[in-house]
Design a protein that fits this description.
Rossmann fold, six-stranded mixed beta sheet, Transcription Regulator spoIIAA
């Protein structure tokens, strides 16, 4: 295993168990590793400190362990078992949930979502990509008969410069059954072509809360994607639910999910339109609006434009929502922290001239845990607002 030696003082973050080392912290290497290769990190005075996956780029090493241990199937089984025990403690395990949330479960670069008896695995680092079959074997050993299929979906998440020519496909099984459940509702999971792992599990608890506010309301679900908020609103007793997304494919999936839960229900209608165009030409008045856009900022360089985007979008919703309306508004941009997001929403409210109260401050659910040593893992921010 190749060794990387840190500059003096650059071990401080590792001593605080932060799982990343940046390229600027490296003094020299025993020899140049291949991307995705396991490497050992040493302090400037030759003391071992960590082992992780090497990657070309700003984040040069993603740490797997701070102990001298082998990274093999047994290692992955131990980490997966620990992650599974957390989910069992949360009362999850029978429906849809996230089993592995990267650094939050001490497996940086790895995401695993569970949909019934199918796991969808996603690698965000070359090292996890190389270990995919070992991880799949470990996962099967941990979950046993509960797991029948493992679908590997990393075409769009691996570093493009690695030039891996990765193709999605099954590592175990091959079931075509794409229907999963959440809080008693059913939905199609497009793990073949959909975004992320096919469904946004991170909004599970927020969708449930929305259902509690939906009775008797006219609901507008912007950026609906698979329609999760829409069918929760319908179960909650909404008068009508309109779903909007710029993608016709997303609209088709939303309609399929609504039909799966509420066949023939005339309360729902979906529109394949640009969000701002729809908000400017709304077909009716709404007193409950959901704004759950894709990430406006993938990195810090896009932060300024992202803040402008959140202000513009939320201002339009504040201008259009009925008095006494409820606004659920979100940001999933990791580069935008919760204070910056709140400031953007407050600026939008002031610009629209509306009186607004905060009812709830929302975040990612417990199966998307944040490693206390890695605060960057907090990405989902949300506010539930009462608008006079």
């Amino acid at each position: 295993m190749k060794q990387l030696y840190l500059k003096r003082g650059k071990e401080d973050s590792l001593l605080r168990f932060h799982p990343w080392i940046f390229s600027g912290a490296i003094h020299h290497m025993s020899s140049e590793p291949e991307e995705g290769e396991l490497v050992e990190l040493f302090t400037s005075d030759n003391q071992y400190i960590a082992t992780g996956h090497y990657q070309i780029g700003s984040i040069m090493v993603r740490v797997l362990t701070f102990e001298h241990e082998s990274i093999n199937q047994q290692f992955y089984e131990q980490r997966l078992k620990a992650a599974y025990n957390v989910r069992l403690a949360l009362g999850l395990g029978d429906e849809s949930y996230r089993l592995v949330h990267g650094e939050g479960d001490n497996l940086p670069g790895l995401i695993i979502d569970i949909y019934g008896n199918t796991a969808v695995m996603q690698a965000h680092s070359v090292g996890m990509h190389h270990d995919r079959q070992t991880i799949a074997d470990a996962l099967k050993n941990v979950l046993g008969e509960k797991l029948q299929n493992i679908y590997y979906k990393s075409e769009t998440t691996l570093p493009y410069k690695a030039d891996l020519h990765q193709e999605n496909g099954f590592l175990l099984g091959g079931s075509a059954d794409d229907i999963a459940s959440e809080n008693g509702l059913r939905f199609h999971v497009d793990w073949l072509h959909g975004q992320k792992t096919g469904f946004f599990i991170d909004q599970r608890e927020n969708r449930k809360l929305l259902g509690e506010y939906s009775k008797g309301r006219n609901v507008l679900n912007m950026f609906c994607y698979t329609g999760g908020f829409s069918f929760y609103a319908m179960r909650g007793g909404a008068n009508l639910v309109h779903s909007v997304d710029s993608s016709q494919k997303a609209i088709d999936l939303t309609n399929a999910n609504v039909e799966l839960n509420f066949p023939g229900d005339s309360r729902h209608k979906a529109f394949a339109q640009d969000a701002f165009h729809f908000l400017d030409h709304m077909p009716t008045k709404y007193d409950l609006i959901i704004l759950d856009p894709p990430a406006f900022a993938k990195h810090k360089d896009a932060l300024r434009n992202a803040i402008k985007g959140y202000i513009r979008l939320n201002r339009k919703a504040f201008e259009q929502i009925q008095p006494g309306g409820i606004l659920f508004t979100f940001s999933c941009s990791q580069a935008v922290d919760k204070n910056q997001f709140r400031t953007a929403v407050f600026s939008a409210a002031a610009a629209a001239g509306r009186k607004v109260r905060i009812l709830h401050q929302l975040h990612q659910p417990a199966d998307h845990p944040i490693n206390i040593y890695h605060p960057e893992g907090e990405y989902l921010k949300g506010l539930v607002l009462y608008v006079e």
